[in-house]
Design goal:
26% of the residues lie in helices and 20% in strands. By secondary structure, it is an alpha/beta fold. A 7-stranded mixed beta sheet has the order 1-7-6-5-2-3-4, sandwiched between helices.
Length: 233
Amino acid sequence: SLYAADFDPQHHADLFRWTDADPKYGGPPSGFVPDGDTGGTGYQLVHPQPLAFSGALMAEVIQSPETSLLPVDQGGLLGMVARAGAGDSVLVQQLYERMHWGSSSDTPQTAPNLRLDAYIAAARRGAQVRILLDAYFDGGENAETVAYISQLAQDEGLDMRALLGNPTGRGIHNKMILVQAGGQQWVHLGSINGSEASSKANRELAIQVQSDAVYDYLAAAFEADWANSGGVR
């Protein structure tokens, strides 16, 4: 299994048994008491109850670094987004989505973020694309992406908008892409961020499902967060 292959101390030197005495990863300091005061921001819940339903659905498990960037004809996130064309929609909510990959001296042309390129390509095919990125934890990279997308949409006349947001008051930590295409609704959920390392180096997991119920449930939350971030659809 995937877990057994990763949890293999004979081949992975960075795996070691946890002990309370470890100076870096050990137990908390003497007298430590966790802070039980979480505060609150007044965020209005979109769904007070979790989604529950039964029935068969089509699902695909995606793992980084092996399958998160599969060619569009083989499935994966890029294949899901490639379904979207004229009259369809792509909704993206991410902790971050880099303007480009590679080094700081690279550009979207020299080292493109393949995920971001897929969203842009969908907009160029006529899909409506909305990208909501975190403002709370952002160190400026998300702001660069939003500016890049906004300028590109203006220059090319695309129905594509990007925003920084902090709808809950404690940041966006979601990794979610929703696609409505050809009468079908698809959902991508998992741990994969928009960096090159997340797709090519880290162990990350996501699941993609074709489900109207799951899509509608999550799209309602996206729409609320988009509106709370100042977005107009």
